[in-house]
User: What shape does this take?
Amino acid sequence: MTPLVAAVQMTSGPDVSANLVVVDRLLRAAAEAGASVAVLPENFAFMGLRDADKLAIAEEPGRGPVQEAIARLAASLRLWIIAGTLPVRVEGERRVAAASLVFDADGRQVARYDKIHLFDVDVPGRAESHRESTNIRPGDQVVTVDTPAGRVGLSVCYDVRFPELYRRMTAEGAQWLVVPAAFTVPTGRAHWELLLRARAVENLAFVVAPGQSGVHASGRETYGDSMIVDHWGEVLGRLPEGEGIVTARFDLDAQRQVRESFPALAHRRL
Assistant: This one.
């Protein structure tokens, strides 16, 4: 069984409709390439001029123009879509959730993961600060879901620095992991590939990491380098910059054999 999976790289801006035109084009390219699952980057539908702008375009759980557009595309393309993140309103909260939503090939939303670890940092070497928790409420649930490409564990961007999250996913049967991201350039240059390959190797899992790439309307620059890594840490495909897709096949039989013959996951003591 060797399903084809696609990672979608974008340079999203503050115009939701314009972003969705790009999403439509790139998801169609993924479907035409034969992908059974496609993964969109973090903030695929909206990257505002200010961080707080996401509050104005946030959608209610289960409904809204972005969710409806992705559901229609999933159904029309017969494609499973992991929709990076979009802001979803939280009852009783001013802040929103950074929600990663999974749609099956019938357009049904079958899973939701709210980003757990929030990027509250000052970027080393730059006059650049981020305080995600000002406008985003962190999630608290680990989420895995079965797809045509095997069982996937959901995560987002800064989550990749917290390996215990991925151990939980693997314990729940995850065969592959997604890391939709909008990584900064300094941290991307230093750590992006290193972290992705480490999460793949230590969990003997495929990793699919679609990113935002380039300079956005706000002036923020993201790293790109969308990547698919196999369970042994080999980079199967990457897109260094610009908009587009990268695809790779998962050899799930080979992964199963490695997990059986090299049973590091069963040797954990702590």
